[in-house]
């Protein structure tokens, strides 16, 4: 009687080893997948930072273009868009908006311009390679008193 019960416990122990081995394999696979994901994020972070800085510079170029047009002797305040030709900004699209409000103070007439610039790279919703920056400034063509 004792002999039979001893054989049954060995069989149960063999089944337990299989469950433990499968559990260890699943845990190791999950850890490996996590490490691959972390590695990919670390690889993409500098690229995203660089593209974000380029987007900012492209938007700044749009602001400078809009300010230049607004404070000329004959102001031009229209919405426009362009693609920068510089080597570091290729692929970006810049949309510039401008609104003007005229003021009169005494004998002085001047305008206040609100200029906005949005630089984009890639297509929104088209994947992780979409970068965008918005900038806005307010300038005037008033002469100093």
Question: What attributes characterize this protein structure?
Answer:
145 residues, alpha+beta, four-stranded antiparallel sheet, 1 helix, 48% helix, rod-shaped
Shape: rod-shaped
The computed structural class is alpha+beta
Q: pLDDT average, as an integer?
A: 83
Number of domains: 1
* Total number of beta strands: 4
Quaternary class? single chain
Kindly provide the radius of gyration, computed on alpha-carbon positions and rounded to a whole number of angstroms: 32 Å
Spatial strand sequence of the major β-sheet:
1-2-3-4
How would you explain this protein's 3D organization?
This protein has 145 residues and is of the alpha+beta class. It has one domain. The protein is built from one helix and four strands. A four-stranded antiparallel β-sheet has the order 1-2-3-4. The longest helix has 69 residues, at 2-70. The relative contact order is 0.14.
In brief, what are we looking at here?
The protein is α+β, with helices and mostly antiparallel strands.
What is the topology?
Layout: H1 2-70, E1 80-82, E2 92-105, E3 108-121, E4 131-140
Antiparallel strand pairs: 1-2, 2-3, 3-4
């Amino acid at each position: 009687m004792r002999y039979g019960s001893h054989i049954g416990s060995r069989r149960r122990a063999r089944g337990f080893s299989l469950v433990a081995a499968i559990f260890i394999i699943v845990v190791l696979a999950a850890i490996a997948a996590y490490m691959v994901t972390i590695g990919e994020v670390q690889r993409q972070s500098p690229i995203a930072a660089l593209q974000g800085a380029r987007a900012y510079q492209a938007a700044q170029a749009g602001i400078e273009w809009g300010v230049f047009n607004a404070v000329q002797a004959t102001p031009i305040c229209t919405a426009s868009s362009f693609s920068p030709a510089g080597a570091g900004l290729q692929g970006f699209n810049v949309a510039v908006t401008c609104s003007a409000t005229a003021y009169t103070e005494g004998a002085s007439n001047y305008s206040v311009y609100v200029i906005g610039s949005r630089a984009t790279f890639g297509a929104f919703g088209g994947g992780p390679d979409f970068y965008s920056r918005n900038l806005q400034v307010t300038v005037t063509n008033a002469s100093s008193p």
